[in-house]
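Standup notes, structure subgroup. Blocker cleared on the cobalamin input:
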Amino acid sequence: MSDAIKEKIKNYVIGLGVDDVGFGAVSEYKSPLSPAIETIFPGAKTMIVMACQELSNCESNNKRIAMSGRLDVMEFMKSCNYKLARYLEKEFKFKAMATPLSYPLNMNKEARYGLVADFSQRHAAIAAGLGNWGRHNLVIHPRLGSRVLFTTVLCDAQLPPDPPVKEDLCIQCNICVEKCPGHALDEEGKTQVMKCLEYSQPFGIAANMGFWKRFIDSTPEEQKKMMSSPEYMSLYQSAFIGFQYNCFNCYMLCPVNR
Ligand code: B12
Ligand code: SF4
Ligand code: SF4
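Run returned:
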């Protein structure tokens, strides 16, 4: 019976235009840093993880075009989160909760000021048989490669899990390490996040705080100039749309399945 329900859900998700979907048991979610799923959704049993291919926009040297492609994928995935959660509730009377694929994040110290998510999509994807770790500390999907984003809907029904991907998909070519402009991947098994952030989000929160620190120390005349500078306007735009990535290298240059 639950096999038939799983198949129905799978067909529904693929029908939405999602590239792949995997089912994982909550008991197999092994994120050492994010909180236990029980604290988010008591009684959750299954993670339904959706995988979507990034658009070729990420290859563009025009970073606004690259970022706009990312925003399109994220918007699509957020709508799939909602549709799937509602489908599970209406069709099967399961209780379902969608997880954030990126933001909002816990900005407190215990979550490293927004660097540890309430729900780790990479650990969920691995538990749902959608791939395994690459040298870039991202998840490589067997068919979609590295250029893939994940998002998850949790539900209280026990559905048959998919088998884990056993083979090592990373071919250890080291391209991600060599092409990282911030040398954030030099240490194996760890992303040096501050180094990544400096290059990948030049108008992110760290840059925003730096701007306002300089602003406080400036004269009224300098402050006026700062307010009309391209730097301030870029910070404003970045905060307004959520965030703005300026680097996609480790993700985009990985040669697996491209
Ligand atoms: C915060 C965050 C960031 C931060 C911190 C990155 C980080 N490494 O965690 C910053 C802003 C730097 C960032 C950058 C990027 N991110 Co980001 N980010 C997130 C977010 C919101 C939370 C991640 C989190 O909780 N990290 C904390 C812990 C879990 O990670 P950690 O400190 O690196 O440590 C773990 C891993 O390194 C892992 N690990 C590494 N190697 C190995 C090997 C083995 C054998 C094992 C067992 C474990 C393991 O174990 C560590 C402990 O758990 C997730 C979305 C989400 N909700 O999950 C997206 C997410 C991870 N990001 C993503 C992407 C694509 C990127 C970027 C490429 C940016 C871009 N331009 O798109 C870069 C890549 C950086 C990199 N190579 O690591 C995707 C990854 C998709 C994929 N294919 O895996 C995600 C999943 C978003 C999504 N919904 O798809 N990101
Ligand atoms: S997103 Fe760019 S800066 Fe960050 S780890 Fe990947 S290659 Fe390095
Ligand atoms: S670029 Fe090469 S080393 Fe890096 S994750 Fe992809 S296959 Fe592995």
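Discussed briefly. The mean pLDDT is 96.
Next: hand off to the docking folks.
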